[in-house]
Write a structure and sequence with these properties.
The protein is an alpha/beta fold. The protein has 15 helices and twelve strands. The protein has a seven-stranded mixed beta sheet, with helices on both faces. It has a five-stranded mixed beta sheet with strand order 8-9-12-11-10. Strand 2, helix 5 and strand 3 form a beta-alpha-beta unit. The relative contact order is 0.13. It binds ligand LCS. The site of ligand LCS has 16 residues, from helix 4.
């Protein structure tokens, strides 16, 4: 059954999955095996030469992982996918595949801290240059192009500013310049945004977040419409070694079954919370794609099928007041990560985006007072009561 034949919500439960052929198990079996026996030496040789596509070694491929890859590829309207040990493993694989000495990358300035650090501090050691731009204005992407630009990297909505980039406009620029367009779709999940349909070449996720959704796994994935791109990245991943473990892959498959339910519920909570937060007398500003005050509100309406469950805000009184709120919540958990079933609150400048350093944060508009809230699936009134009592403590 293909996603095109059923609704997205139904596809989350069934995509890429059928009862197992041996015993009819409804849940996909976990093939917890590092290696796979060959019937004879010729079969082994055929598998390594690519004439036979059977499994050989779990770093190179695993049946449980393959089911997850087919499932997420379908949900993203892609043709092929490559699961990885973490979101950062997906990101480093894409960079190691398409960048190299003398090559140049253009990236959204406000990206997950370690993504920017990887480009800015690690890959520069290997001769890669990067330019970070406010990609919410596509002209900034175009202006940063050089003859060496090989890759354009977008995070939209961006972590943690929730700034939004026009994927279609960026795709036009990438196509004209002959470079690969990569979109980190972690904040939306395929439920709310389909970058491949908007012209991106590769979409990636930290599956640690909404796709798995239970704050109990770290994992990543890369998806493309062109299987040749996935094949190229698979080659690099096999050498780099950032393969997902089959048990982790199985846990994510289980999480994906409830993706639509979780995202809808959390998003409903966030849609109610954001305007109420915006009116609260102790709040300086709120950034949420579903608010008319969001600078790219119109674009969000066009590009995303919903505004999501991530909210950023600043409390009057800046960092000190923000810390008081984070120290005073009792239901929301003070922790990094996002997209879990539980509400999580954190301080990007001192936590997720600390590695970027103050200069890069300033350039990316990540203020010291910004507090990020990943709205979970608790009852709305319980979340609101908790936040309001924490705001009262200031
Ligand atoms: N992309 C985005 C947009 C992310 O938010 C993260 C992690 C990653 C990639 C990396 O994924 P990982 O390797 O952790 O699976 N973001 C985190 C955050 O905001 N808080 O803690 C982790």
């Amino acid at each position: 059954m293909k996603h095109s034949d059923v609704s997205f919500d139904t596809a989350c439960i069934h995509a890429g999955q059928a009862p197992d052929k041996l015993y009819g198990g409804v849940s996909v079996p976990i093939f917890q095996s590092s290696t796979f026996a060959f019937a004879d030496a010729d079969t082994g040789a055929a598998r390594f030469s690519g004439k036979d596509n059977g499994f050989k070694y779990t770093r190179i491929g695993n049946p449980t992982t393959a089911v997850l890859e087919n499932c997420v590829a379908e949900l993203e309207n892609g043709k092929a996918a490559l699961a990885t040990a973490t979101g950062m493993s997906a990101i480093s694989t894409v960079f190691m595949t398409f960048l190299g000495a003398g090559k140049h990358a253009i990236s959204t300035g406000s990206v997950y801290g370690p993504t920017r650090t990887l480009l800015e501090k690690e890959l520069t050691r290997f001769g890669v240059k990067s330019t970070f731009v406010d990609s919410s204005n596509p002209a900034n992407i175009e202006a940063a192009l050089t003859p060496e630009t090989a890759l354009i990297y977008l995070e939209t909505p961006a972590n943690p500013t929730l700034s939004i980039t026009d994927i279609k406009a960026a795709a036009k620029i990438a196509k004209k310049a002959g470079c690969v367009l990569v979109v980190d779709n972690t904040f939306c999940s395929p439920m709310l945004q389909k970058p491949l349909d908007l012209g991106a070449d590769i979409v990636l996720h930290s599956m640690t977040k909404f796709l798995n959704g239970h704050s109990d796994v770290v994992a990543g994935i890369l998806v493309a419409k062109d299987p040749a791109l996935i094949k190229k990245m698979h080659g690099v991943l096999c050498q780099m070694g950032g393969t997902i473990d089959p048990h982790q892959a199985w846990l994510v498959l289980r999480g994906v079954k409830t993706l639509a339910m979780r995202v809808k519920f959390a998003q409903e909570n966030a849609k109610k919370l954001a305007p109420e937060l915006e009116k609260h007398p102790k709040i300086e500003w709120v950034k949420y794609p579903g608010l008319k005050s969001h600078p790219q509100y119109e674009l969000a309406q066009k590009q995303m099928s919903g505004p999501g469950a991530m909210i950023s805000f600043e409390v009057k009184g800046g960092v000190t007041a923000g810390k008081k709120v984070m120290d005073s919540v009792q239901l929301c958990t003070l922790a990094v990560s996002l997209g879990g079933i539980e509400s999580l609150i954190q301080h990007p400048a001192s936590m997720t985006h600390a590695s970027m350093g103050p200069e890069a944060r300033k350039q990316a508009d990540i203020t010291d007072g910004l507090v990020r809230l990943s709205v979970g699936c608790e009852e709305y009134e319980d979340i609101k009561k908790d936040l309001w009592q924490a705001l009262d403590k200031i």
